[in-house]
Automatic annotation (TrEMBL):
Family matches, as Pfam families: fn3, Metallophos
Statement: the UniProt record of this protein carries the keyword Transferase: no
Originating organism: Sulfurovum riftiae
PANTHER family in alphabetical order: HELICASE RELATED (PTHR14795), TRANSMEMBRANE PROTEIN 62 (PTHR14795:SF0)
Chain ranges of the Fibronectin type-III domain: 593-681
UniProt name for this protein: Fibronectin type-III domain-containing protein
Keywords, ordered alphabetically: Signal
Segment forming the signal sequence: 1-30
InterPro entries per UniProt: Calcineurin-like_PHP, FN3_dom, FN3_sf, Ig-like_fold, Metallo-depent_PP-like
PROSITE patterns xrefs: FN3
GO molecular function terms attached to this record: hydrolase activity
Length: 765
């Protein structure tokens, strides 16, 4: 929360006489109404049902039947996270012919409890949230009937209720507020009909404390019985006092939605509170809330209920009459016109391109025989959607907006129920114009260190600056002889679809003593991974891989080691710099081929290459080397690089090279071929002596004349270790043999990763 927001909120509370000490630990918004995302994931969705104005006890009505349908068939078919009843639970008339609320009546509350049939429906205080309305408050200043008979009142002893729902992707907060008059007035034939609705200081204090307590919520929803402002209908009452204070709390804590009943009508709008009326001061809610009037379940010929879905923090709503299946609601993309006028801060646009996700919830007594299909802008062609196996109520498809003009477009989903009945839902979405840039680079936004030691952080992978994030292996647990070293690390990158998509990473593995390398893979769900490449050798190289261009949303990049052999416990590491994904938006040309390739031998194990860069649209260059099996990739460098050092070669050996440039559209033609022969390897001098220190024998290995920066030491034909080499001086290494060595040991020293080796020296015991 900004300091100005905190200051204004505290001033408001002070004017209400509310002690500020109970809010001294405010941590920030209780939700972020601007966090809706158009994501690919299909498992970040939940939904709930809201009903209002059941009016149990109305003369000549079937209101108990309506409520019974909701808690029996409706609950079983829709399987909501919870159900909300937003006031006017009872009618307070006990069926009198004039319809005047002259109660309260215990008989109505008894009928209400009997209809809920809690023993058989599974309704309880954890999934059914009923708050009072004005009909529940007439002539009952203490709300004793509500507290003794409602689900929440009898469970909590309060007239307001706060609860959360926690998922793997976040926590969501819900708050039912008591807007009904608490003065015990009887019904009146004259305005405001005994319904002087409002929120007093104690009620506002509870609301503020609960919003502060749940400041970690992704989104926050508030439910009340009355509208927050005058509706323009002379028969409607509203929150006469406390409305501006409630709005201030909503604005301060980022509440996303206010749902209410009372009017028996349905409407949706964005509410910013920019009105002034009789008893309230002007106020604002920025950026606004979804302000939804839920039509009544009782006293209504249509007998409505509302389904609200939250999909990647995008809010969708649909109102339906009871008893009619199927019910369908599009959850992604969210409706641009949900709550006109459209507010871009609370919604998102659709990128211009293929692979856009489409998701819809379909509810029917037998979804196994249902079908769902969609079309765009009234097209005569309907495209099939597929049921999500992990969620039988959710259907999904993929649609292409690349041929659409920038602006509003309509998506319709048509659902066919188990009895052949067809229902549709539609949303208006804003499709972006075609990108004016050829590509966009997208960088790591988060990481999950699964196993291994991490130095620095993912933020160090954003630029090519020589500052690395390094992941180092750890040793497994268990029986010592079966332990091994391993690592696993995951990065997340938000990406958008395009015509091409390429992954890049500048990587430098450590020199492994046990043959370990590092495998990179990608996923869109963090469950199923597709391999991209495996590192080769300890050289600093740029690696790349082409990805499906339709990926849109969170991309997961995982690195794992390739050797987990028992006993191999050397701690290898991978240094990562400039890790990113490039999305291309146009089908441009492949780059021009490089020319003037020259290969020059600089030692017995290294050849340097140089070439001319003739293109301005390459992503990088691929260097290939000819060996006995054909052309193989020797390395990759980035854009504008015109040199490469090929190391680890054999002495006195001829090598032939060629180079090509590449981008998201493909590879160029090859450059000319160039051949160079490595220098003859120097004769490495090796001497091995044995010594005894404190009862233990040591093989003292000494060598000289190696020309590489490091050497491999072999013992009995197997690599013992790789150590640094001083080209101009003498070098040594000690190999402990224990107290009772026996037999013979052979040693040999080679320039690292080459065949330029010393003679073999044997020591015997």
């Amino acid at each position: 929360m900004s300091s100005s927001r905190t200051r204004n909120w505290r001033n408001t509370l002070s004017s209400m006489g509310i002690a500020l000490v109970i809010f001294s630990s405010i941590a920030g918004w209780a939700g972020d109404p601007t966090s809706a995302a158009y994501c690919q994931e299909n498992d970040r969705i939940f939904w709930f049902v809201t009903i209002t104005d059941t009016h149990i006890g109305t003369s000549g009505s079937q209101d108990t039947d309506n409520l019974s349908w909701v808690v029996h068939e409706g609950k079983n078919v829709i399987n909501p996270s919870f159900i909300i009843l937003a006031g006017d639970i009872t009618d307070s008339t006990d069926g009198n012919l004039l319809g005047y609320p002259n109660g309260p009546y215990q008989s109505e509350w008894d009928q209400y409890r009997a209809t809920l049939d809690m023993a058989h429906t599974g309704i309880n205080a954890g999934n059914f949230f009923d708050i009072p309305g004005n009909h529940d408050a007439y002539s009952d200043a203490d709300f004793s009937y509500y507290l003794n008979n409602s689900v929440q009142g009898s469970a909590t002893g309060r007239t307001q209720v706060s609860w959360t729902r926690q998922f793997s992707y976040g926590t969501y907060h819900f708050l039912g507020v008591n807007t009904s008059a608490n003065d015990g007035s009887a019904f009146s034939l004259f305005f405001p009909y005994g319904d002087y609705a409002g929120l007093d200081t104690a009620e506002l204090s509870y609301i503020g404390s609960e919003l502060a307590l749940h400041s970690d919520a992704e989104l926050t929803f508030i439910f009340g019985h009355h509208p927050m402002k005058a509706t323009g209908n002379s028969e409607d009452t509203w929150i006469f006092y406390g409305a501006s204070e409630l709005a201030s709390l909503m604005e301060s804590y980022g509440v996303s939605s206010y749902l209410y009943g009372h009017t028996h009508r349905f409407s949706e709008s964005f509410f910013t509170g920019d009105v002034e009326y009789e008893t309230a001061t002007p106020y604002q809610i920025a950026p606004g809330v979804f302000y939804t009037n839920i039509a009544s379940l009782g006293k209504s010929s249509d007998n409505h209920f509302n389904i609200t879905a939250v999909d990647c923090n995008g809010i969708s709503m649909v109102t339906r009459a009871i008893g009619i299946w199927p019910a369908v609601i599009i959850t992604a993309p969210m409706d641009r016109n949900l709550g006109k006028p459209a507010n871009p801060l609370l919604q998102y646009t659709v990128p211009n391109g293929p692979g856009n996700p489409l998701r819809a919830l379909l509810f029917d007594p037998d979804t196994s025989v249902c079908t769902a299909e969609y079309r765009i802008d009234g097209s005569p062609i309907w495209h099939p959607m597929d049921r999500v196996p992990a969620n039988p109520n959710l259907w999904e498809g993929s649609w292409d907006s690349s041929g659409l003009s920038e602006g509003d477009h309509i998506i319709e989903v048509r659902a066919t129920g188990s009895e052949g009945t067809i229902r549709t839902d539609s949303v208006t979405v804003y499709v972006e114009g075609e990108s004016s840039v050829p590509y966009v680079d997208q960088f790591v936004s988060g990481e999950v260190p699964v196993s291994g030691t991490v130095s620095n952080s993912f933020s160090d992978t954003a630029t090519l600056d020589g500052i690395y994030e390094t992941i180092t292996e750890r040793v497994s647990v268990g029986k010592p002889s079966k332990r091994y070293s391993y690592l696993e690390h995951i990065w997340t990158i938000p990406v958008e679809a395009g015509t091409t998509m390429t992954f890049f990473a500048q990587l430098q593995p450590s020199a492994s003593m046990d043959g370990d390398a590092f495998a990179f893979a990608y996923s869109t769900d963090n469950v199923h991974y597709t391999p991209m490449f495996t590192t080769s050798g300890p050289d600093l190289m740029q690696y790349s891989a082409n990805l499906p261009a339709s990926i849109n949303g969170t991309l997961y990049i995982k690195v794992t080691d390739t050797d987990r052999t028992a006993g191999n416990k050397a701690l290898d590491s991978i240094a990562v710099d400039h890790l990113y994904v490039r999305t291309g938006f146009e089908a441009g040309e492949v780059p021009a081929s490089p020319s003037g390739l020259t290969a020059t031998a600089v030692s017995s194990t290294q050849i340097n290459l140089s070439w001319n860069d003739n293109s301005d649209n390459e992503f990088g260059f691929r260097i290939e080397r000819l060996d006995a099996s054909g052309w193989i990739e020797a390395g990759i460098v980035g854009a504008d690089v015109q040199t490469y050092a090929d190391t680890g070669l054999q002495p006195s050996t001829a090598y032939t090279y060629r180079v090509s440039a590449y981008n998201n559209n493909g590879d160029s033609a090859y450059s000319n071929e160039s051949t160079a022969t490595t220098e003859a390897g120097a004769a490495i001098s090796l001497d091995v002596q044995t010594s005894k220190v404190r009862g233990s024998y040591i093989a003292d290995i000494a060598w000289s004349d190696a020309t590489s920066d490091s050497v491999d030491i072999y013992k009995n034909g197997a690599l013992l270790t790789t150590v640094a080499n001083s080209i101009s001086g003498n070098n040594s290494y000690s190999d402990p043999l224990g107290k009772k060595p026996s037999g013979s040991y052979t040693y040999q020293v080679c320039e690292a990763s080459s065949s330029n080796c010393s003679e073999t020296v044997t020591v015997s015991f």
